[in-house]
Design goal:
The structure holds two protein chains of two kinds. Chain A is an all-alpha fold. In chain A, about 80% of the residues lie in helices and about 0% in strands. Classes of the chains: A mainly alpha, B alpha/beta. Chain B: It holds the Pfam family Response_reg.
Chain lengths: ~130, ~130
């Protein structure tokens, strides 16, 4: 069982879903806070859901407010950094690049990819914490 | 340190200032692991209010972008009030000009988010030198 868990975790790192920050979180987990990592990940998905919705709504508007989009994405990127969500964070960076140059189609494409990575990571972490 | 009394070993006290509850939780846990006493608030105004209410801290970890009052403004206000404790900016912003402006607002220095164990050690090293 432990081995299965270790393999699952290693795979998340090998596939680039998680980075070193996740390890840091696990190192903070102890007997007094046995579910710390799961709690933090839950907090991440709860708070980031609001940001994802805001970005979705902002991308519906015309013309696009790139400054607002960038601000939302900066917040989301920060949250991703806090749990080590590497792929999602990378998509945040890509999105912000598109914002910087005012590429609305690029933003929309990038956000679709981001949502895919976000959902995939969520599923994988749900299995990991079961 | 943080209001010590005679014969009592006081923990280093830290005020975490960040609008992201996730960051407050993670940074709080990380600092507690190093034996630090922490208090967290959600924006610069709440941080200023803590000091106006007579609280003192050995260290403030200040986020840059926050609603109500951002990090640079809160830092300028705290320094203007005579707050001399260490204030470290913790930001994910990668714009060097923005970070330089943040430092110029009165930070001791800036550290990149997310705050790591290595970051805490570096900050504590600096803080220890400052307190001695």
């Amino acid at each position: 069982m432990q081995r299965q868990l270790a393999n699952m975790k290693q795979s998340l790192f090998d596939q680039g879903y998680l980075d070193e920050q996740f390890v840091q979180l696990e190192e903070l987990q102890d007997d007094a806070n046995p579910n710390f990592v799961e709690e933090v990940v839950t907090l991440y998905y709860r708070d980031s859901a609001r940001l994802v919705q805001n970005i979705d709504q902002a991308l519906e508007k015309s013309p696009l407010d790139f400054s607002k989009l960038d601000s939302y994405m900066h917040q989301l990127k920060g949250s991703c950094s806090s749990i080590g969500a590497k792929k999602v964070k990378s998509e945040c960076t890509q999105f912000r690049e598109y914002c910087r140059v005012g590429n609305g189609d690029g933003c929309k494409r990038s956000f679709q990819q981001l949502k895919k990575e976000y959902a995939t990571l969520r599923k994988k972490l749900e299995v990991y914490f079961q | 340190m943080g209001g010590s009394s005679k014969n009592e070993v006081q923990k280093i006290s830290v005020l975490i200032v960040d609008d992201d509850p996730l960051v407050r939780r993670v940074e709080g846990m990380l600092l507690k692991r190093y034996g630090l006493e922490t208090k967290a608030v959600a924006n610069g105004k709440e941080a200023v209010d803590m000091f106006l209410a007579g609280n003192s801290y050995d260290l403030v970890l200040m986020d840059m972008e926050m609603p109500v009052m951002d990090g640079p403004k809160a830092t300028r206000m705290l320094r203007g009030m005579g707050v001399s404790c260490m204030i470290v900016g913790v930001t994910a912003r990668d714009d060097e000009a923005e970070k330089a402006a943040f430092v110029a607002a009165g930070l001791d220095f800036c550290w990149e988010k997310p705050l790591s164990a290595q970051g805490v050690v570096a900050i504590l090293d600096d803080l220890t030198k400052k307190l001695l």
